Amino acid sequence: PDLSADQVKSAFDAASAAVALEPGPDAKLRAALFVALGHTALERFSDTAAAETLFNKALQPPFPAVAPSAAFDAALWLMRLRAARNEIPAAEAALATASGFVSGKTPPRGPNAEELPVAFQDENGSVSIQDLMLDPEEPLFEGNEGQARLLYETAWLQAQTGDYQKALDALRKLTEEYPESLWMDDGLRLALLITMGSTGSMDGLKVLFEADRLALTGKATEAVPALESLALTASGTPLALDAAAKALLFSETASDTATLMSKLNSFVARHPAHWAVPDLLMLHWRLMRRSNTPVASEVELLKQFVDRFPGDLRSRRARLAIADLLRRSR
Predict the structure, then answer these.
(1) Residue 150's CB: how many other CB atoms inside 10 A?
(2) Rounded distance, CA 268 to CA 274, Å?
(3) Of the candidates 31, 28, 52, 51, which has an alpha carbon nearest to the alpha carbon of residue 40?
(4) Does residue 274 carry a pLDDT above 70?
(5) Which of 23, 159, 179, 236 suits 186 as a labelling partner, its CA being 20 to 30 A distant?
(6) What does the buried/exposed string (b/e) look like for 114-142 if buried means 16 or more CB atoms within 10 Å of the residue's CB?
């Protein structure tokens, strides 16, 4: 999200050109590109139709057999997209497809070897899709990350449909069976949100989850009024803080820049440990770049980000930006 629109468009066009080449790149790379392009189309361009097409391409034979990890990812993104459009049966079907990749079943072998297309060509000749197929005994994913993610995504979908107890059961299984998983933090955060939000009325939780679904389909600004209202009515609760943070994140294109930057400063100063602070700081930087903020202020914010979140993947870009700003200001 810290890349400019032009940078994203340029990368998207380059990847689209690469995936359209014939005979094309390595089949595994092509599947990964379909997923990455779908993700970008959805999250940066809010083009749900293009995203759905691209995710479906990663699920067409022979990719589920050649690149099961990419196909698994595509199925889960399809699940979220369909849930965001309130197509719950279709979302559940996509989740079931993803489940097949971590159930121990062998991926579909696809057509007969003589019917399989060429995956790529080099000076040694053609390599067919069959040559890239997984051994039936080869694990689909490293460690247990596939199983852990499936539990998290299952809980996410159950939360969207209001089945909070089943969601908590899935998250409890995640924490008990896969405590070292990369999905632990996300799982604990979702469990905490459901637990804190399910005391008394469930209306607050419904507002938050509906806001996330609207954001996924490019309608984030429509959720801002309800989020701001929830932040006031649930004042002093973790749910209110989450609502306030999301309202700020979703106001990027719907609020006066100076006013929004002031609100961001206030939230980060008052709630420095909140999970949304890294995203809020990156939003603040994007607003700074659009409003001709003095270089010194940009550098100060970026240094704050790097110092506080050195493990965040965006810290490298922040360091490069600091160096570039200092060089240009000399």
Answers:
(1) 23
(2) 8
(3) 51
(4) yes
(5) 236
(6) eebeebbeeeeeeebbbebbeeeeeebee
Gap between the terminal Cα atoms of the chain: 28
Angle value at C-alpha 308, between 307 and 314, nearest 5 degrees:
85
Cβ-based neighbour number of residue 324 at 10 Å: 10
The reported pTM is 0.80
Specify the 3-state DSSP secondary structure of 182.
Answer: coil
Q: Return the ∠ at Cα 162 (arms to 161 and 164), rounded to 5°.
A: 125
Give the whole-angstrom CA distance, residue 24 versus residue 167. 41
Whose tokens are 């040694």? That residue is 124
Q: 174-211, pLDDT tens digit by residue?
A: 999 999 999 999 999 999 999 988 766 788 999 999 99
Token pair 């008052």 is found at 270
Residue 121 has pLDDT above 60, yes or no: no
Residue type, 49: A
* Spatial CA neighbour of 159 closest among 205, 200, 201: 205
